[in-house]
Amino acid sequence: MAAATIRAIERNRAEVNVAPLELRLGSAIGGLFPSIAERAQRGAGAGETSRQLADGQRDKR
After folding, report:
1. Which listed residue, of 3, 15, 26, 46, carries a Cα 20 to 30 Å from 55's Cα?
2. Residue 5: inside a domain, yes or no?
3. Does residue 49 lie in a domain region?
4. Which residues of 28-56 are buried (b: 16+ CB within 10 A; e: fewer)?
5. Cβ neighbours of residue 1 under 8 Å, at least 6 residues apart?
6. pTM of the model
7. HEC string for the chain
8. How high does pLDDT run on average in the chain?
9. How far apart are CA 46 and CA 61, in angstroms?
């Protein structure tokens, strides 16, 4: 993180993406091909993960 911050300052960049390459690629593919990304997320169990997160946060509403 520190190295990315220094590079951003040296290159006069307002934002730096420090996410791993896999996440950056997944995000780019999801933006370009949302239906493919949706199918991949369903296959990976994203729906169940979302339900678990919502259930865990329910008492905080």
Report:
1. 26
2. no
3. yes
4. eeeeeeeeebeeeeeeeeeeeeeeeeeee
5. 18
6. 0.47
7. CHHHHHHHHHCCCCCCCCCCHHHHHHHHHHHHCHHHHHHHHHHCCHHHHHHHHHHHHHHHC
8. 86
9. 22
